[in-house]
Each structure stands twice: as C-alpha cells, then as structure tokens.
Fold this protein.
Amino acid sequence: MSNTTKAFRGEILHFLSDPAKDNEQSYQYFEDGVLVVKDGLVETVGLANDILPTLADDVVVKQHDNGLLMPGFVDTHIHYPQTEIIGSYGEQLLEWLETYTFPTESQFGDTYFAKPRAQFFLDQLLTNGTTTALVFGTVHPESVDAFFTQAEELNVRMICGKVMMDRNAPDNLTDTAESSYEESKALIEKWHGKGRLHYAVTPRFAPTSTSEQLHKAGQLLEEYPGVFMHTHLSENKNECAWVSDLFPECENYLDVYDKHGLLSKRSVFAHGIHLCDSEYQRLSDTDSSLSYCPTSNLFLGSGLFNLKKAEEFNVDVGLGTDVGGGTSFSQLQTLNEAYKIQQLRGEKLTALKSFYLATLGGASALDLDDKIGNFTPGKEADFIVLDYKSTDLMRVRMNNTKDILERLFVLTTLGDDRTVRETYVMGDLAHDRNNKKTSAL
C-alpha cells in the first residue's frame, strides 16, 4: 500500500444510496472531478475546480480522458474452482453439479493444483474490474489456503470459505459434520480478519448437508460472530422440490437454514429465484441478503429473479457472476443479462440501479459498506477506470449519447473486460489493460 497522496482526475461517479429509493439523490456525478487518495484510503472526491487548488505542489494528478472512474465492482457470489468449466454445455443445476462441478472440484485437495488456479481466478477478477468477491472454495481446506495466500499477496478484500458437504455428493468430496466444523474453525482462526480477508461458513446447499452439519454451521456463526455465511437458495425448481422432500418438517427452503441459525446480517444467499412472500419477509427481518446471478440463471435455465419483490420487502441485493454456471467474470456483461431478465418480467432495470448493484449495493449486501463501495472519505480506495472507447462499436455508440445515464446504459450493453482500462487496489494500480501480463494455467 502506498504511503503517499495521489489524485485522479476525470469523470467520476459513485453512489450514496439505492437509486430505487432515492433516485437523483442516490449518487454523485462529477463531469470533471478529482479523487484524492492518501495512504490507500479516500481522502476526498469532488469537482476539479474545488479540489485542485487545495493539493500540495508535489501531488501527482493522473488524468483519465474518455472514461469513467467509479468504485471497484463487488461480486457477491462466485466459485473459483469452477473457472475451468465455464461455458460447459447442456445441463440444469442438479445435472450440472454431477456432470461438471464435482469432477472438477475433486482435484482441489492438492495445494500445488489449487494455487495457480487461485492466481488465475484473481487475475480474471481484477481484469474485469472486480476488487471484492464472496467466493466458494471446495470441501478441501487446501483450496481455501491457496485462495487466501494469493489474495493476501494482492492486498484485495476477499471472502472465501471451505464447502461443508456431508451427503448427496461423491465420497471424495464429502466431509462429516464434525470434520467440517473443525476444518472450518481452523481456517477461521488462520485467515479471518488477516489483512483484508474474511471467512465465510459455506454449506454448499441444503441437499448436501445433514441437519447435524447445518447445526454445526450455525455453531460456527455463534462462536465467530464476525464471519460470513454463504450458500445457495431456491435456484432451481427441482432443487426446491428435493429440499422439501429432505426437510419435510420445514415450512419452506429458507426455513431449513433459519431453523439451523444461519440467517443474519452477514448471511448471503445466492439466487433466491423461487421464493414466497414469507421467505422475503424473513430475509428482511434478519437483514440477510440475496445475490442476483443473471448469467447463470439464464445459462442453467433456472428462472427470472424478482428484483422488484426484493425491493418491496427491503432485502439487500448484490450482483453475482456465479462463474462457472455464470458465463462471464464481467459485471458489465452480468448487468447486460440482468437488464434482459427484468425486461422478460415486464419491468425496467435502470442504468443507475445496475451500477449501484455492482458497487455500493454489493458492498451493502456483504455488510462491507463501511469499508468499500463508494468514495466517501475514509473508505478503501478500490476503484476502476472504464473506457468509453474500448471498442470501435462502443466509441461510435458513445458519440450518440446525450448524458451520463445513456453512457452508463451503453457500458452495460456493450461493455466487457476490454472496457476496464485500469483497476486500482487501495490506490495502487493492480491491472492495466494496456500493459497486461496474464497469469497462465
């Protein structure tokens, strides 16, 4: 982390609240703005004419033309061991697990196998402008050690956890209620709160955990109240029916987790497509969050997420790529699919709401909005520079936009990894598209 003051000048956008609630008061946009970073933290942001005269003579101001500075993207649900099976053909959720996921994840008990894959995964995140993510490991503690080792070197704010899975999976991928507790506990004590790293208690989903194991997950949350809880919820109709058969004593899918003490402000449930009103209400009552994963929801044929219903019940929602069921690391491409899902539901997803979901909305869903997500003073200076001319098509289209709202929408419809010109972590350059060295597998 740098111990100097730096300034970055250009178009700047960040959010102060949810545009669905506060509309034009929800964000700040500076057509000619300056972001000042000191010791890796945001010192101030505002109009260039106001800030430039206040800077010391030795502060270097980096100019960014034809682009937009905004906070780094936050990915609230992704599987790093599934990177190499992204874009695999032809299955829905349960068949996907059997055909692609389980065979791939079985290899991550080998640290030497896992480390370069963790490095490649993190490189892909930064290339796509993602500076914080909530990440699934595998059942192997080695997978989490490999991930956190690489993340610590990059000084990125990341959350990860060992999968807990003691039934309905191959023998070489199952643990026990007790071993999952002991291994998770050891990982929490080793990694949680180390630098910018956090641990997530991670039962894969209700069908692959016994009630005993889910109780152990709840016990971990009681013993370590600062950790996260990360799992899947109501992604697929066949999955929901299976949960009903496995847990007949529970009122609904969410109730399975609720009865085991897994709902809290740091609990994030991926998908949440097929929910009833009482489930939305319970998520709201417990300050639990949902991760909206549009690319995987479409690719695996899971269904259309009801964003308006989540808003109605005041449930925090973040954006998730869900690689490898999701088909891109890019939050811009993910927003492209999110817009289409809302269209299919007969609803609109505004460009402001889109970028809120990818930044401050994701930070709020992860209960990290005191640290990341916007440019209020004291926040960690993780940010990106998006290029309005990253492709010829985008350049031509941008020439026909009249304001920032149109430009934002074009970024979500035509943008991808090429659009991310630079990614900064704690004020330091972590990805430069024009001087890119890709980590190889």
About this structure: The mean pLDDT is 95. Residues 111-127 form the longest helix (17 residues). Residues 215 and 260 are 5 Å apart (CA to CA). The two ends are 28 Å apart (CA to CA).
